[in-house]
Amino acid sequence: xxxxxxxxxxxxxxxxxxxxxxxxxxxxxxxxxxxxxxxxxxxxxxxxxxxxxxxxxxxxxxxxxxxxxxxxxxxxxxxxxxxxxxxxxxxxxxxxxxxxxxxxxxxxxxxxxxxxxxxxxxxxxxxxxxxxxxxxxxxxxxxxxxxxxxxxxxxxxxxxxxxxxxxxxxxxxxxxxxxxxxxxxxxxxxxxxxxxxxxxxxxxxxxxxxxxxxxxxxxxxxxxxxxxxxxxxxxxxxxxxxxxxxxxxxxxxxxxxxxxxxxxxxxxxxxxxxxxxxxxxxxxxxxxxxxxxxxxxxxxxxxxxxxxxxxxxxxxxxxxxxxxxxxxxxxxxxxxxxxxxxxxxxxxxxxxxxxxxxxxxxxxxxxxxxxxxxxxxxxxxxxxxxxxxxxxxxxxxxxxxxxxxxxxxxxxxxxxxxxxxxxxxx
Length: 426
Ligand SMILES: [Zn+2]
Ligand SMILES: [Zn+2]
Prior knowledge:
Blueprint lengths: L2 H17 L4 H6 L10 H14 L19 H11 L7 E7 L2 H13 L8 H17 L3 E2 L6 E6 L4 E6 L2 E9 L33 H13 L3 E6 L8 E14 L8 H11 L4 E9 L2 H8 L3 E10 L5 H11 L1 E6 L12 E13 L4 E8 L5 H6 L5 E2 L2 H5 L3 E12 L19
Parallel strand pairs: 1-2, 1-3, 7-14
Antiparallel strand pairs: 3-4, 5-7, 5-8, 6-7, 9-12, 9-14, 10-11, 10-13, 11-12
Helix pairs in contact: 1-3, 4-6, 7-8
The structure holds zinc ion (2 copies).
């Protein structure tokens, strides 16, 4: 027994004990910040014994501060154990929603006895339940920042709430078939409820890159959903070839966290063959989501362009050369309904191409991220300046568009040349 601690705590402990029935955990928590390597229960018990030897017996009965909630910690730990049955985790964290009565009693307790070294009882409770839980499940360590599972004991409602943290994967995808959106779109008619137009699916398009790519991962992880966070998105009618597009796949509420991402990537490629390919997979953190979404990557596009009149190869070359530089773009009409209408300047780094017949060309553009290539070609009724149509003095429009490269040193696989197999694609 620590003499120094006892002599420091005894006078206040004597007052507390005389005031009404109190449990060891609450008595000990009153001096929690004095430390000395004891648990609150041990500290409270030591004080009670020392006071009994000095002739102070205290009162029997239900603890007036916590209503004996500390003695119920083991039962709550068992409920929490049942809650995580079948859920894989290695780290956990407990939280508690105390009853108002407990909160008020604790505040009064601290104030009444001027407890300068009291530990907040919520902390003590979470630690107590956590230790009991860890013993019951036989594994797990507490993690205050990013636990796999967070268990919230709601004392008023009498339930344990379970929140399972998402797992995140980084990778790149290629979309080798046109007409597939990146993420699933709710049906415009029914907004996702299901109607005759969408055949009851609630979806505007039958499949998406997100669904095609995520399916095996969702099954293996027992996830409730998957969210594809892309480094930008290509148009639905554009292919995504070349290096592929970086993404982070978020698997929500996974029941299994240790999945074989290489094998699942192969499974996804088998199931989505001819539509979507995935590669360069690796584990990622939640922080990678915003990193991937916000990285300003340069893009390379291949466009098939149709002209309103005959164009000579020399005229094409001259027009493309003269376009290189800053392009001022007002938000295109086709996206104006969902984007703010403003003028942005993006750089066209290079442009080169060749005629395929008299009125059609194949052109490669290398641009800043965010430059709209279809409008760079057509001019979008004067909203993009300069534009290819304007330079040639005739109508021009993109009939096919592919994204060939998305490049930034900021991506985790920037130097790995991920999926760079442009030649494989038709
Ligand atoms: Zn108590
Ligand atoms: Zn519908």
